[in-house]
Design brief:
heterodimer, A: 446 residues, alpha+beta, Alpha-Beta Plaits, 2 domains, 12 helices, 28% strand, B: 99 residues
Chain lengths: 446, 99
């Protein structure tokens, strides 16, 4: 049986398109997957869909597909992506239109529906939130979206039905990459050892550039060649689930044991129990061997049965974020920035503005640094950042406005003030029985 | 010696949980890392942020430790008002630890 090559075309919703196109041109791929849904992305898309029922898919869908479709069609590369976001059906229609506009005839395009379980969640208000144990019903009308992380089977079914492009909403990220392996190699739903190995491949590839020296480079200890030309990765896998990862030749970046080890454990908790809808993958015995330039073989992944639940991400309206920043420089800048913080704190008190998770911090001193605060006596510039979460938009605007007002009312030499106010959409999780969720497929041919 | 002299690190986030890996540049120094950097030391080192338990998982074949920090991200990236709400920079601050 043949080996298959699966590429990674995006590691987040706003990712670059050029490296994906380079990968398709330079490597003879069979599949390419674009992973474009962060935790909150689907809730933001749902808000967009409420305003316009024809929207709610990834905002770069058209931009990406206009360039990917002709390449994919001419080279026989099949595309999987969760760019359907909150509206895979609308995304399907849009991609069909794009394919027709480009004269691509006989292209079969599919969408996976059924991840939207808002009704199910609303009917079961007693479901506990995984984060705090409280019933999901407490969020009531503030709930904006609820999407189950579906597994790879519906996508494998779509491939069996001849799909050249598959658009999904929420699916587990590695499942986008596992689906082609299940389809090509005929791995059984109970072959958890293989599913665990395929899940490893998906997990390594799902963040695209992060396997190739992205989120890795450190000029002092971990130099990366031509990081401005970072290549995207692919894997070659055989029917036993063995294989290697590499990247598009002639691009920047690097793939080695260190980049693979960093990505193996990225967003992993217990490495022996990585829960996906397809299996409970075991990465605890994984090892990597450098087998060539930018080529790393993987071994040792395993798996056990998955749980009988789907994880569901619930997006809800969580008030507003207000934020303001302003900079101070020269002798005594830290003292002036601290005075500015005191002024804002006193003004918020006087105005009766209540903010949760209120931060008055100095960028350059203690904004991202969790260690004991350093005084940095010689600092020549520092930036005050004030941020808080408020119940209403007006309070958030007032909070941000108090920072801007430091221009004319605050310490000497405050410059570069900016402010931001936005509705905050937050996420919690619940579990629902798999038996309550029915993934379905729709297809269209150009 | 600071950790960054012998190890590299990457942070990830899932909800309100941060995980930080610590990976020896050379497999031969893994045992030094494993004996010096306990879950308790990480909790104490990042104590201003971490309000929950810290768990440690070991992958000696890769020279790697994985630390899982519960209740460490002020509610997580979708709710927190932090500048680095993902906790991406926590890896760099872990590497500042003296051993």
């Amino acid at each position: 049986m043949k080996n298959i090559r699966i590429g990674s075309g995006a590691g987040y919703g706003g990712d670059r398109i050029e490296p994906a196109l380079e990968l398709m041109k330079r490597v003879s791929l069979h599949y390419i997957a674009f992973e474009c849904l962060a935790e909150r992305t689907i809730a933001l898309a749902q808000r967009e869909k409420l305003a316009n029922p024809a929207k709610g898919y990834n905002s770069l869908l058209e931009h990406r597909m206009r360039r990917v479709l002709p390449l994919a069609h001419s080279q026989g590369v099949r595309v999987l992506t969760n760019m359907g976001a909150a509206n895979p059906e609308a995304a399907l229609h849009r991609v069909v239109d794009l394919a027709r506009e480009q004269g691509l005839k006989g292209m079969r395009i599919s969408a996976v529906l059924g991840d939207d379980v808002q009704e199910l969640v609303r009917r079961n208000p007693e479901l506990p939130q995984l984060e705090n144990g409280r019933p999901i019903g407490e969020l009531a009308d503030r709930i904006l979206s609820a999407n189950a992380y579906l597994g790879s089977q519906p996508m494998a079914d779509a491939l069996s039905a001849g799909a050249e492009v598959i658009l999904t909403g929420r699916v587990a990220d590695p499942s986008l990459f596992l689906a082609p392996m299940i389809y090509e190699f005929g791995w059984a739903a109970g072959d958890f050892e293989r599913l665990g190995q395929g899940t490893l491949v998906g997990h390594l590839l799902e963040c695209a550039g992060q396997l190739c020296g992205g989120y890795y480079a450190d000029p002092l200890r971990k130099p990366v060649p031509e990081p401005w030309n970072l290549g995207f990765p692919f894997a070659e896998v055989d029917a036993s689930g063995s294989g290697y990862v590499s990247k598009a030749p002639g691009t920047g970046g690097l793939v080695n044991r260190a980049t693979c080890t960093e990505q193996l454990l990225y967003e992993i908790h217990d490495p022996s129990a990585y829960l996906t809808p397809d299996c409970t993958a075991d990465f605890s015995q994984v090892n990597f061997t450098e087998t060539g330039p930018d080529q790393v073989a993987f071994t040792g992944a395993g798996g056990r049965a998955p749980t009988d639940s789907y994880k569901v991400s619930v997006g809800y309206r969580n008030g507003f974020l207000g934020e303001g920043q302003i900079s101070y420089g020269g002798n005594g800048c830290v003292a002036r920035a601290r005075l500015a913080a005191d002024i804002v704190r006193m003004r918020l008190e006087a105005l009766g503005i209540k903010a949760e998770d209120l931060r008055l911090e100095l960028i350059g001193i203690n904004a991202i640094n969790p260690l004991a605060i350093e005084e940095r006596p010689g600092a020549m510039e520092v930036r005050l950042r004030v941020a808080g979460r408020t119940a209403g938009r007006e309070q958030a605007e007032a909070l941000a406005g108090e920072v801007e007002a430091l221009y004319t009312n605050g310490p000497a030499g405050g410059g570069g003030a900016v402010k931001k106010v936005e509705e905050l959409i937050s996420m919690v999780s619940v579990l629902v029985p798999k038996s309550e969720v029915r993934p379905t497929l729709i297809h269209q041919t150009t | 010696m600071k950790l960054y002299e012998i190890a590299h690190s990457r942070s990830g986030d899932k909800g309100n949980i941060s995980n930080i890996t610590l990976i020896a540049y050379e497999l031969s120094t893994y045992h030094t890392l494993a004996s010096a950097v306990t879950a308790g030391r990480v909790k104490a080192w990042l104590g201003n942020r971490v309000h929950g338990e810290v768990q440690r998982f070991e992958l000696p074949q890769l020279g790697a430790l994985n630390f899982v920090l519960l209740n460490a991200l002020a509610g997580g990236v979708t709710a927190s008002t932090a500048l680095d709400a993902h906790g991406k920079s926590l890896s760099s601050f872990l590497l500042e630890m003296e051993i």
